[in-house]
TrEMBL record:
<feature type="domain" description="HTH cro/C1-type">
    <location>
        <begin position="11"/>
        <end position="65"/>
    </location>
</feature>
<dbReference type="Pfam" id="PF17765">
    <property type="entry name" value="MLTR_LBD"/>
</dbReference>
<dbReference type="Pfam" id="PF13560">
    <property type="entry name" value="HTH_31"/>
</dbReference>
<dbReference type="InterPro" id="IPR010982">
    <property type="entry name" value="Lambda_DNA-bd_dom_sf"/>
</dbReference>
<dbReference type="InterPro" id="IPR001387">
    <property type="entry name" value="Cro/C1-type_HTH"/>
</dbReference>
<dbReference type="GO" id="GO:0003677">
    <property type="term" value="F:DNA binding"/>
</dbReference>
<dbReference type="InterPro" id="IPR041413">
    <property type="entry name" value="MLTR_LBD"/>
</dbReference>
<protein>
    <submittedName>
        <fullName>Putative transcriptional regulator</fullName>
    </submittedName>
</protein>
Amino acid sequence: MTRRPAVGELLRGWRERRRLTQLSLSLQADVSARHLSFIETGRSRPTSEMILRLCDELDVPLRERNALLLAGGYAPAFPDHGLDDPSLDAVRSALRQVLEGHEPHPAVVIDKNWNLVEANSGLALFADSVEPSLLEPPINVLRLSLHPGGMAPRVVNLGEWRAHLLTRLERQVAGTGDRAAAELLAELTAYPGGLDREAEPQPHDVVVPLRYRHQEHELSFLSMTAVFGTPLDVTVAELAIESFYPADAATAKFLRSL
């Protein structure tokens, strides 16, 4: 039988992931370094309040905070409702308002694993001519973007765009240690398309654009990510809105014509 890590081991893992020493974390959390050492080695059992205080300083996601509380022998502190739960009616309504208000520009709602939760009609622009299997639920937007049967053949700057997306996913894996994200990263890295991590930016460049070929048009988009500012529910904390904006006048004109 596999032994479950103790709460002290898990906290030490998060501290090391954040590249903090025991001393620096103890100063941030206003706790003695000796007591923190005892917690990490299992010589002292932390209170639920101490676990949450350390989680605040370590920026631990809500789902993992619940796991740490359970490992310490306490009940989870954060609810985890399904998105269809009546308590999240206001959240669903807000998401739909954002998606609909963004049309005709593409926008999607994704979960922590980059799976599609909801989208507006603008997504059809990117989903055109992709393999049907990639549009079967759960639709993973990174797989849709980089799979050779997905958007990839029509992404003009594929090496640059792949590097941008994979770097984001690498940071997520490094920051959370999430196994599903690590498996997705390994899958996507194996796709063809190259990596252009050292593309020379032009003086007027401020972000990495998505340059996408649609029929006879070459469209250019900027992407923006938005999250809920003060989530107290695990599901809500793991949602993000990815919105695409025209990066040039020609793309804006084309989208207005849709």
